Amino acid sequence: MKHQTKSILVLTLYGVLASRAALAQQAAPAPSKSWLQDSQVTIGLGAGGMARYAGSDEYRVVPVPVLNIVTPSGFFFDTMQGAGYRYDISDMFFATAAIGYDAGRKDSDDGLQPGSAKLKGMGDIKGAVLANIEAGIKLGRIGTLSLAISEPVSNRERGLSYRAQISSTVLALAKDKVSVSAAAMFGDAKYNQAFFGVNAIQSRNSGYARYTAESGLNAVNASLVWTHSFNRTWSVSTMLGATHYMQKAADSPLVLAKTNYSGFATVNYSF
Hints:
Helix content is 18%, strand content 47%. By secondary structure, the protein is α+β, with helices and mostly antiparallel strands. Strand 8 and strand 9 form a beta hairpin.
């Protein structure tokens, strides 16, 4: 029943934002240019390093493609967030709704997929299409405070995840911009059990002790992004981040490193 209520809430928020998008399009004057000419587009490519899975003591190198499209009407596409719509409720408040994808986790070293051979016998966590809802408040020069929820549209047994985040631009020069963010990550009982728990069958197959990961806080994260612009079109971006696992997640036998680090660098072209 609780899961049905959460699903109804997510669908309701999606409906509100969709109706706002439709009204905005009806109210907008006929565009003088194509949607692409009026949009901000950034493409790029780079490489990064990250833990093989949440709590892993092994790391992997991954390609980092960049495709970011922001239209004047509020629709956007982003390789991290997915495809969605942002609605500025006022000068202070905003909300976004997007459809994204999470690759889940393998119990083997399977190329670029998250996972590790150290999880052999745990079984795979299937990838899922996610409905991502976020609402936030702009805090002036301090930054932005936002709350987000990710609801699986497919493979719903993986559960729901939540995020509370504060972001701020701490340096803004003609050619350089530095932003920092801090976030607290939460999961319901299904989500935390899927990624940090070990049931009886998994224990027998993998050798890990049985473990129940309850709902609640599972990690805190901090990151820094520096973007240097060479001109109006070319730039490079560098990100450094750290995630520290907390509470029941930190005590999971699957968490072999309580702190994971990540980083990437990309070369970007904007037009």
